[in-house]
Amino acid sequence: MSAPALRLALLATCLMAAPAMVQAQPAAPQAAAAPAAAFELAPLPYGYEGLEPVIDAQTMQIHHGRHHQGYVNNLNAAVAQTPALAGKSLEAILGEVSKHPAAVRNNAGGHYNHTLFWTLMAPADQVGEPSAALKAQIDKDFGSMDAFKKAFEAAGAQRFGSGWAWLVWDGDKLAVASTPNQDNPLMDDAPVKGAPVIANDVWEHAYYLKHQNNRGGYLSAWWGVLNWNEANRLFDAARQ
Ligand code: MN3
Fold first, then answer.
1. Which of 100, 107, 135, 228 is placed for a possible disulfide with 74 were both Cys, Cβ 3.0 to 4.6 Å?
2. Confidence (pLDDT) at 3
3. Residue 182 Cα, ligand 1 centroid: separation in angstroms?
4. Which residues are paired to 179 by β-bridges?
């Protein structure tokens, strides 16, 4: 918004609010100056307890309300300090992330990955099943659903430290990958690039309260809350 337009908008806001503000303190300047394009944390599409018993409610509450909120807050702070990023979409930032400081990489990745992750899970009675198209492509590229699941679990289990396991559509085929930290396949310097179809968070904060050191147990139980309806939608969208 240009400076004159901003002044007009502020004036209009003051005029509209005037009757209610007779007794009020002068408006705090930061309220009007909040960045228009700040990233926000969306609510979870189910309750904290919705993924029990695979993922416990306390883990979901901390993971969404503190970890993800932290990525959002830190991303907004990093963008505010990097004028070249003003107004850019999350996907656009990820696509040029190698040009930017680590705080942008880690928090843009953290926000994107978790936003995706929440929608890729659902209560066990709402997960649906793989579409015929996705199942056929998995059979073609991995041999069978079981072989795909084995490869995906291995990618998550073998990621040393913190990171993510992915199923991506690379334009020609499906591929399993893993990334460190909050990296993802949209980043311009990712070793495996493509459109995410399935993603699992293998940071200890995603499973430790319930599964402790048993990352393999978490990875195998996680199929019970994988939202195939969303994976099918992402696969269809990626091929258009
Ligand atoms: Mn996480």
1. 107
2. 44
3. 8
4. 164
